[in-house]
Amino acid sequence: MAGRAFTVYVAGGDNLGIHEALPQLSVGDVLVVNGQGATHRALIGELIAGRAAAQGCAGFVLDAAVRDVRDLQELGFPVFARSTTPAGPYRNGPFRVGEPVAIGSVVIRPGDVVIGDDDGVVVVPWEEAVAVAEAAEAKRDAEARQRAEIEDRVLPEYWQPS
Length: 162
Description:
Structural class: alpha/beta
Strand content: 25-35%
Shape: globular
Helix content: 25-40%
Largest sheet: 8 strands, mixed
Number of strands: 10
């Protein structure tokens, strides 16, 4: 998953702000939600994720719980969350959309670059995105050279380069 941060701050266990944000998402946005780390109510499930995916949203990062995990996996829509719970959300507010939020100790501003994979999520401030991308490409190329050197020396049967 990679895209621009679209930020939302919600009350713990309350997804009214997410419903308000969905129509505002652009293709490639990653919905980043500070849900105050609440795990007693899921902020999203398969229906909201499906709506977001249909709009071209790249994925969700939530400091909160989600539900419908198997359905989310089948949908193939990237969702990074604190936990899971079967309990549905409240829809009372308050919320804020399009302001900086924090997930853990990381501040995410609207438009920052959000990248996630099986190892986790990283946020790159927009003004540093080009330099970080260049450094990441250099690291990838260096690791490819190292793999080639390993393969040239000895390639055990169990070695499967990625």
